[in-house]
Design goal:
about 240 residues, alpha/beta, five-stranded parallel sheet, binds adenine, cytoplasm, methyltransferase
Length: about 240
């Protein structure tokens, strides 16, 4: 996968891309990422990228020209049809299903504003997706884009050492993850449930499924609203 980020603060990405799993994934060629400061595409003398809002009002808006030109520059010669993603609190709420969809793409381009909004023509004519990572307002789209990038990159083939973990973690089956334990079996009197020490894989699977379902019901009942429960699951929820 190829990732391009257009941001006025490229330095913000260093810590995230240069550590741990994302760094390893980049080193192994699972993705390539280029951060472009779109100020360099401003075609005016002072390299301005924002301007006042027509009709008045507080705040500045990012002008279309530098962003259109920057997108044209990063898509030149790629032969890909990228998803062009604007990070904005007005966007579609992001979730694991969205991450799975983006993980299938060849090329993602993130547009990140900082303080300012975007001129509407960027939305209308350039952007394919508007994404919000939650109902709160950040100072810019950079952190939000890093959240999306991280959640997409970990789904790319070969990125997680243990391939199973991406498929068993929270949300991938529509449920929250079940409780997990490691050694010791008894820590200060707090014991690991017997079933997990039983070696009976069928019972362990059943216990995990049940605990996932219970936890989802307690913490995120909204996730169960559109789920068709099996008879067994209905039975568990009644217990
Ligand atoms: N930019 C500012 N706030 C944001 C949010 N919640 N999601 C995505 N981009 C943003």
């Amino acid at each position: 996968m190829r990732i391009d980020v257009l941001s006025l603060f490229p330095e913000m990405y260093k810590g995230v891309l240069e550590h741990s799993i994302l760094k390893k994934a980049a080193d192994n060629g699972a993705f390539t990422c280029r951060i472009t400061d779109f100020r360099q595409y401003a075609d005016n003398k002072h390299q301005r990228v924002d301007d006042y809002t027509y009709g008045g009002g507080a705040g500045m808006l990012l002008m279309p020209q530098p962003i259109f030109d920057a997108v044209e520059a990063v898509t030149k010669d790629t032969g890909t049809k990228p998803r062009i993603i604007m990070m904005t609190p007005q966007g579609t709420r992001y979730n694991q299903r969205y991450a799975e969809e983006l993980a299938k793409e060849d090329h993602l381009i993130f547009l990140c504003g900082h303080y300012e909004g975007f001129d509407e023509r960027i939305r209308q004519s350039l952007v394919t997706d508007e994404i919000s990572i939650g109902d709160y307002v950040l100072t810019g789209g950079e952190l939000a884009s890093m959240v999306v990038m991280d959640s997409v990159i970990r789904l790319l083939p070969g990125v997680l050492g243990n391939e199973v973990s991406a498929h068993t973690d929270s949300f991938s089956n529509g449920l929250l993850e079940h409780p997990q334990y490691t050694r010791p079996a008894d820590f200060r009197g707090m014991k690991v449930p017997d079933v997990l020490l039983s070696g009976n894989h069928k019972l362990i699977e059943e216990w995990r499924h049940k605990e996932s379902l219970r936890r989802t019901l307690m913490r995120r009942p909204d996730l169960l609203e559109n789920r068709i429960l099996t008879d067994k699951e209905k039975e568990w929820l009644q217990e």
